Amino acid sequence: MVNNAAGALLLALSALARGGEAVVSRGELVEIGGSFRIPDIMARSGAKLVEVGTTNRTHPADYDRALTPDSKILLKVHRSNFQVTGFTADVAVVELAEMAHARGLACVYDLGSGLLINLSAWGLSGEPTVSEGVAAGADLVVFSGDKLLGGPQAGILVGTEKAIAACRADPIARAVRADKLTLAALEATLALYRDHTTARREIPVLRMLTEDLGSVKRRATAVLQGVGDKAELVEGDSEVGGGSFPGAKLKTWLVGIKHPAPDTFVTQLRSHDPPIIARVAGSRVLLDARTIFPEQVETVVAALKADG
Predict the structure, then answer these.
(1) φ, ψ at 157 (rounded to 5°)
(2) Is residue 30 classed as helix, strand or coil in its secondary structure?
(3) Between 297-307 and 213-227, two packed helices, what is the crossing angle to 10 degrees?
(4) Domain 211-307 has CATH 3.40.50.720
(5) Residue 301: in which H helix or E strand, if any?
(6) pLDDT tens, 135-168?
(7) What number of CA atoms fall less than 13 Å from residue 26's CA on the CB side?
(8) DSSP character at residue 29
(9) Taking the domain 5-199, which CATH number applies?
């Protein structure tokens, strides 16, 4: 484990591809948080970037044609914060891993958001889990400790004993190591995953993603009753966001407040102590009850009354 996912990828590339070539699809050269881009990280690692395919379509033969005696890894980057739809094609990580190993190369899979539980039962599909990445045969799987995993900001590398040993021995490992508080927080988070029901109940992001609509509605109604006639119950959607499940939406219940100056009202709410983050749609200020925890209802009601 290191300080963040960008650090984890930097370490993986340095350990397995420094002085050689890392082959990656042109459609996977993504920009991550803070305007940092995969090509920039690769350049700092000492690996040479070799782009293959096109923005929307990459085939196994594209990788084959790009290989040289200097090739060291085939890199797969999951597009966790945007979608490419329409006339598209890419190479599955299991196929890429087989191709790499048949040629004596390593396969690195930048998975991104660190999903540990399959959430398709709650209408969220398309985001690969860490276990699926490992089962696909990648030598290293790289992902975040925050985002969908729900722990502290961290970068995690899971893989073969040989690949992990190479990462541990690389000098960059010292530069990107995580501190003891982060280690403790991640340990506590991962311990909750021993039982998936416990994880969904205790880890906030999982609780929000998997909560039933009836429970969300009851909480929205509680806020509504506290505020009075100035608010109304509105059906709507929650967007997952956070660089995960691009385009995915969940049905939710919103508390809508009509206000003559909604933008001003939203600014007032954000200046409240503690800040209340809402959004504006038309003339209404909307609060998503899915993101309001039960113990926060009274705080939200008090803010709406004070700033309204």
Answers:
(1) -120, 125
(2) coil
(3) 40
(4) no
(5) helix 297-307
(6) 999 999 999 999 999 999 999 999 999 999 999 9
(7) 12
(8) -
(9) 3.40.640.10
